[in-house]
Specification:
Two copies of one chain form a homodimer. Chain A has three domains: about 5-75, Arc Repressor Mutant, subunit A, CATH 1.10.10.10; about 80-195 and about 380-395, Nucleotidyltransferase, domain 5 (2-Layer Sandwich), CATH 3.30.420.40; about 205-370, Nucleotidyltransferase, domain 5 (2-Layer Sandwich), CATH 3.30.420.40. In chain A, strand 8 and strand 9 form a beta hairpin. Chain A is α/β, with parallel strands linked by helices and about 400 residues long. Chain A is built from 13 helices and 16 strands. In chain A, helix 2 packs across helix 3 and helix 10 (about 305-330) crosses helix 11 (about 340-360). In chain A, the strands form four sheets. In chain A, strands 6-5-4-7-11 form a five-stranded mixed beta sheet. The first copy, chain A, has a five-stranded mixed beta sheet with strand order 14-13-12-15-16. At the A-B interface, helix 1, strand 13 and helix 10 of A face helix 1, strand 13 and helix 10 of B. Chain B binds a DNA duplex (30 and 30 nucleotides) through helix 1 and helix 3.
Chain lengths: ~400, ~400
DNA sequence: ACTGTTTACTCTAGGTAATGCACGAAAGCG
DNA sequence: CGCTTTCGTGCATTACCTAGAGTAAACAGT
């Protein structure tokens, strides 16, 4: 692992921009105090970002007798980024401004049975990206970068979908295929990693070193961050928490193994539990996970005993699985994300919390914050766009150091 | 996580010394090629280490017509380090030379029922350290540093044993108490972290980024390394793999939970299995884990069906638990260490390997090497001494750059 | 208005690191 | 005794971060 001083610079650049994004208009002094960097360095980095037109000075803050503090904020019109979330049943594209606020979004459905070839998926990505960019008033070539999240295992550096079980893809050079249609920098990765990036920049992971972001949806997994940076593992497939063991020789899992976490706390697992508890329940919508989870959520809030039993039992499994993660990784914060967490997260987490003490070691547990994802909109497309933002930040800067902000044009 | 250029320097210093320790006498050129550092930088770092007397030039290598390459090696007489492994039933001290070869070792037994106060343990550490240093021909004050591994959770920076379940210690300021008797730098941590440090410097973890070292003994746990560095987690308690779930509502574990990995693959767990399979087996030595595991090992090699069944069943559990770790962490290498692995590791690993494919995802599994610990002697005291070595390396250097090795005193 | 005070920012110098390049060192070869 | 080859190191350069000096922009009291 070759480390260079450039890495420090880039990390500091990330950090400064993150603070500004998180705190809105903010003074240099405050950034310096928060990051522990010297004021000179912050001033330098801010100058760099100002010159790159990513920031602007937006006002002044009285400082009680002295020179007022200039407040810097992200120049939202500096450019646009796109984040693409490709899932089994849809392609979701969002266009963001440089403050990562959604400007436009487009979703196209996918029909898993008929649409599974790379060419078809690529066509959907390209067409929905064009449509979204159009709505945001920019040509696709005007974007600063595009991040794409696709399920499965990704060779990020090569831009290759190494293996996507849902479409049975093997070594599909997705980035190259997309590059034929899109002439801006492309970043490919998977939803777990996009999710953790979104939390690190905009969610509960801000300013934290060690983070686990649990994706609770149809599939289940964890995105991990270590020392403030996304952790990928040896082959970019760390975080497959959904396929760790929960019950020896338990339910079969779609991964081929038995007793995986996913088989118990993923949406199909929850449906199976509902079927076990009440085979004829009207809450059960065969073939429709979303509707079933929705029905469970509203029945739970209405006090329905079947829904309560399903939630309680699911929380029992979830608690054990979260405890495992806490014991192994000792993270500062664990975030529950994705659609099952959005719909059922609150009762699941409340009940799981009460059980965690039975399984997690008490000291790591006491030092771990467990929260629901608070990011509005789709964290995966946000995270994908953040890959593009990071890529852009890595490219800027260099020889720019001196006298970047000379003409101030101050009031009066 | 504040990163500074000093960290880079220290990391490079570690890396260079690691190569020299691993490869024996080696030329600067080779180090540069291996590490990717420029020859100038390597020369600079080597000069620094030469001036600190940690290295010496030991010979020359013909280079076919040109100036011969000078070979540098560790000057083993440069000083001594101590590593202390404190366990439930013994205190084991080893004195090492600067190449981390054992010069002397002393072991004192502990009687857990009578000796559990910090003062008693400290007395044992101090007395055995004095005895060992004496055998190595050095006063305890002549050591370059002492690393101490004690079980439980450690506040490394503060040198405090935060919690040690076996002695029911809470917040014992062990380093301060030891410092009253030992006037050299002291480093406190736990066996999991010592074990992974030993593997990173001297074992299967050399040159690897992401490593998991499994400790299979009475207790079970994992030491983790990420990006080539020990991973501690938020409160220095990452790696408690032994207390992750293997069987929902399974065997009670001494941690208070149920169904933990430790309860199935730790030595007491293996004994319990033997008792289940053959309650009257002569292999069973009640109250003596070591003898029982020894008996199992030799019976296994003699083809005994009971021992075979016990090993096979244990391997089933071990395979699942290792698969979990591979799926979550995607490490490059997994090392099986500690005394159960030493005695029974070969058959356990052979059988577990055959089962791993059923539980671990195939691509991460295919990229993970799983090996037995090849370190001779006690990896925990070696790792503890390595903490002291790292501390020493962090302190040296600074203004030393110029003309360090001028008088060469070349042959002829 | 003027002067001092306070606070914010920037510039310069200095320290640390890595590295490319050139030159001296140390061989072998004719 | 040059000539060639290959090492190793000093020096200059570049790229970081930081302390501290200096400058800018306010306010307060004469």
């Amino acid at each position: 692992m070759k480390r260079t001083s450039r890495d420090i610079r880039v990390a500091n650049r990330f950090e400064v921009l993150r603070r500004i994004l998180g705190a809105g208009p903010v003074a240099r002094q405050e950034i310096a105090a928060d990051t522990g960097l010297s004021l000179a360095t912050v001033s330098n980095l801010v100058g760099e970002l100002l010159q790159a037109d990513l920031l602007e000075e937006v006002g002044y803050q009285d400082s009680g007798g002295g020179r007022p503090r200039a407040l810097v904020a992200v120049r939202r019109s500096a450019g646009m980024l796109a984040g693409v979330d490709v899932a089994e049943t849809y392609v979701h594209v969002e266009i963001f401004d440089t403050a990562l606020r959604v400007l436009a979004s487009v979703e196209e459905p996918l029909h898993p049975s008929q649409e599974s070839s790379p060419a078809q998926i690529v066509a959907h990505i390209v067409s929905s990206l064009r449509a979204a960019a159009d709505r945001a008033g920019v040509g696709p070539e005007g974007l600063m970068g595009v991040g794409v999240s696709v399920p499965g295992q990704i060779d990020r550096a090569g831009g290759v979908s190494v293996f996507a079980p849902n479409w049975d893809w093997h070594d599909v050079p997705l980035r190259a295929q997309l590059a034929e249609h899109i002439g801006v920098p492309l970043y490919l990765d998977n939803p777990l990693r996009a999710g953790v990036l979104a939390e690190l920049w905009f969610g509960a992971g801000r300013g934290r070193d060690d983070v686990a972001v649990l994706t609770l949806g149809t599939g289940v997994g964890a995105g991990l961050a270590v020392r403030g940076q996304l952790y990928r593992g040896a082959t970019n497939s760390a975080g497959e928490w959904g396929h760790t063991n929960l019950v020896m020789d338990g339910r079969p899992c779609r991964c081929g193994s038995h007793g995986c976490v996913e088989a118990y706390v993923g949406a199909p697992g929850i449906m199976a539990r509902l079927r076990e508890i009440a085979p004829d329940s009207p809450l059960l919508r065969p073939g429709d996970q979303t509707a079933t989870i929705d029905a469970l959520a509203s029945a739970y809030h209405a006090g329905d005993p079947v829904a309560t039993a399903v939630v309680a039992e699911t929380a029992r499994y979830l608690a054990v699985a979260i405890a495992d993660l806490i014991n192994i990784l000792n993270p500062e914060v664990v975030v529950l994300s994705s659609w099952v967490a959005a719909k059922l997260g609150e009762p699941l987490l409340a009940r799981a919390r009460a059980l965690l003490g039975r399984h997690a070691l008490s000291r790591p547990l006491a030092n771990t914050e467990i929260v629901l994802c608070r990011i509005e909109g789709n964290p995966v497309s946000l995270g994908a766009a953040t890959f593009a933002l990071e890529g852009y930040l890595e490219r800027i800067g260099g020889q720019v150091t001196a006298a970047a902000t000379r003409p101030r044009g101050h009031r009066r």
